[in-house]
Please model this.
Amino acid sequence: MPGQEILLRAPIHNPTWYFIYLFLLTGFFAWIRLYYGNIIVQTVQASVNFQVANRMFQDNNLLKNQLDRILYLFYFLSLGFLLYYVELRIGIVPYGLQGWSLFFFNLGLLTGVFLGRLLLLNFVGILFNQLNIFREYLYNIFIFNKLTGIMALPLIFLLVYTRGILQDVFFWLSLITVCGIFLMRLIRGVVFSYRKDVLIFYMFLYLCALEIAPLVLLYRWLEGIL
Model:
């Protein structure tokens, strides 16, 4: 099928800045791993263990808060590039952007979605006098943002520096990995609502309004600008 051929075989050349950027990004992660290795391991554990996530939220120390911010930055930088490379491969060029412009567009998009959800849920928490619950929920959900950023780094290398059928395999592996983490995030939302005695009806409304609906709107928006 023509569409499938474009999806799997769109040719991509690798400019010099790819190597420089990935070298710096790897160095950034190595620095995080060197100084904050234990907390990174805890973050991965927290993605599959609700009790670990709850303990990390309660342990509100300065070091953990600093690492959270660092890992959020790493999430933007790594996933932004992964999205950039996937967009090139499947031929998505929003507003005709190329190179650094497209990469920074992705960074802005990810940052906007992140901050929008952060502000909205904090506002709802204040409105219903449940700010601490909503902040704990955000912490649980953003664990999967950090996990996505960590997982994106090796996937980027596998995509950029392979060719042919092997690259096709890693392309689909990347999509499956990101979708799998998103599914884990949805499941964590349900588990959180159960553990915190949040009515399933309200959680269903939340999932529809703030998790699924934005993806649909984003898809329609991208569909309109391509």
